[in-house]
Amino acid sequence: xxxxxxxxxxxxxxxxxxxxxxxxxxAFPTETVYGLGADALNGAAVxxxxxxxxxxxxxxxxxxxxxxEEIEPLVTEMPAMAQKLMARFWPGPMTLIxxxxxxIPDEVSAGLDTVGIRMPSNPVARDLIRxxxxxxxxxxxxxxxxxxxxxxxxxxxxxxxxxxxxxxGGPCEVGLESTVIDARFSVPVILRPGGITPEMIRxxxxxxxxxxxxxxxVAEGERVRSPGMKYRHYAxxxxxxxxxxxxxxxxxxxxxxxxxxxxxxGSPAILGFENHDYGGRRVLSLGxxxxxxxxxxxxxxxxxxxxxxxxxxxxxxxxxxxxxxLAVMNRMGRAAAFDIVCLE
Length: 344
Ligand code: AMP
Ligand code: MG
What we know:
Structural class: alpha/beta
Bound molecules: adenosine monophosphate, magnesium ion
Distance between the termini: 53 Å
Strand content: 15-25%
Oligomer: single chain
CATH class of the largest domain: Alpha Beta
Number of domains: 2
Mean pLDDT: 95
Number of helices: 10
Shape: globular
CATH topology of the largest domain: DHBP synthase
Largest sheet: 11 strands, mixed
Strand order of the largest sheet: 1-8-2-3-7-4-6-5-9-10-11
Low-confidence stretches: none
CATH superfamily of the largest domain: DHBP synthase
């Protein structure tokens, strides 16, 4: 199969919508990352997503809608807190967990009795959903285990020959996957951090909790509320280590380890801030320290670049946990299998 990369013109979105309606797969842009979509009500089409990605069958998919009304047939209940958060943060990078109706195939929910639903803000994504005439189940459009794609070129790298069409809407604005929230009860719980930050949820809901697995590895066989959390994700081939502490100590330690790696014939690279002086060593920029949104939008491309450059060691500067920084550190932490060195 040849994979076509198409500009999101009216005609092309219409064509892509017809493919989805016929049970085929289409990769499309959202404000978070590129998604790999199928008709969420067609179990056979949804199975094709798992096949194309090589995704474990127990990792559920998020269902995307183009308007809040579309979720009614998909759920058995509309919890009050979920309605409050929808009114405040949809369309946008927030997924809510609902008790699922029997219209949601088991392939989507991976055997859970709940379903994650999101209304994206990206106009191409919403237009595609409208034209396909069905809700679209879509995980990130990468091969399982690779960093999520934030450009159509990343999707092409992973999916060429596996799907008929990629809609190219340019680079994704946020660059990290949506915030997944269980808002079935009075205090919302963040299962996966993302573009809608804990501070924003607390402000809207009065209170917020974080799932304990956000900044910790999941032990073998342990049950988690967000099944995706247990997989080693986003992992470059390079051994990846994160350094936390004052900039002076972090820069000095990263330079020391960089030079030691080179001395034994390895190929190190740094994921660091561009205002820090690394004396000409290879730095993949995370922007500047007080703009965690830049680190968010650059992180996945930088992790992919490590593989392209065949790096053996990735030395990363920690980002502050404020705002979207928590989501950056959650993804970076998992890429590093939570190998975090504290220098204070
Ligand atoms: P992806 O779209 O690849 O970012 O993966 C979607 C992630 O959303 C999964 O890995 C889960 O962690 C989470 N998720 C989706 N549906 C549910 C659900 N019903 N309950 C809890 N977490 C979910
Ligand atoms: Mg994913």
